[in-house]
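User: Hey, quick favor. My workstation is busy. Could you predict this chain's structure for me?
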Amino acid sequence: MNVRKIMLFVFGVLLLAGSLFAQTDKAGAVDTMYVEPYQIDAKNWGINVSLFNDEEIIAISMPLTFKAGTTKLVADSTVFTGGRADHFRVKTARPDTATQCLTIGLINDIGVQVPPMQPGSGRIATIFVSAIDDSEIKEILKVDSTTTPPGNSMQMVSPPVEEVVPVLVIKPLEKKK
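Assistant: No problem, here it is.
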């Protein structure tokens, strides 16, 4: 009986600790990354990545993992055009098909004066995913955050150099029409 109470207590502490470290932000509201996968057709999926932030942002690291049953996937392309980070000087999307991951890296200024991303809400990127062998993707695409080498985790930087760790929300799937 005591072992059960101890295990319940330990589980509660771990659950509380995880929620405390899930988001660090010294400014007001909780910053949130939204990931919204959608099916384009039987062979292709898209993933919209959006952000709500209430402070200026000068850099973003967003590593994502994706899975569709046993189908091996590849991130074919990532589009930043028209998004909130379109003006950033460095916009990278590094896919890793071996681990089924993609790391988005954004830096607004590399010596040329570029304004930070202002507080607001909206899309920052769209990722397009297909099967490596060009087959149909029969399972629902699942997306989550991860850590990719050499230690990229989901985080942002606000000026001058303050770390902001946003909450991740994965929106329900919907078929693109």
